[in-house]
Write a structure and sequence with these properties.
Layout: H1 17-49, E1 53-63, E2 66-75, E3 81-88, E4 94-102, E5 108-116, E6 125-131
Antiparallel strand pairs: 1-2, 2-5, 3-4, 3-6
Length: about 130
Amino acid sequence: MSTASTRLPEGRYGRPADERADRTLKIVGGVLGAVLLAVIGWFAYHYVGQNEISGEVISFQTSPDSVKVHLEVRKDADATGYCTVRSQAADGLEVGRADFRFGGRATRIDKVVTLRTTAQGTTAELLGCHGD
């Protein structure tokens, strides 16, 4: 007893449609993957590489109408810019916000700044630092 083959003879009718679809999907997937990597690299470069000024709040001290904030700012030697600081009351309302400018040749600046508030502040938050 012999078994009949359901396969087409090799090379007689060209490549099956499934093989062509698989190849097309692989090409499209590779191109989309490369584009995604390029976009991620572009955002990473502009976020990390172009950020000339960074800072952090070391400590803060509150009073009824102000908050003294100890900031540490790191920047390039020729960079100028500002850092934005805000304070919130115990109920979460913003009671003060101000920009503090930094310049000069120093690459690390330790500075205590005073943020005026409209009520007793309970926090001091650095919102970000930006170059000019």
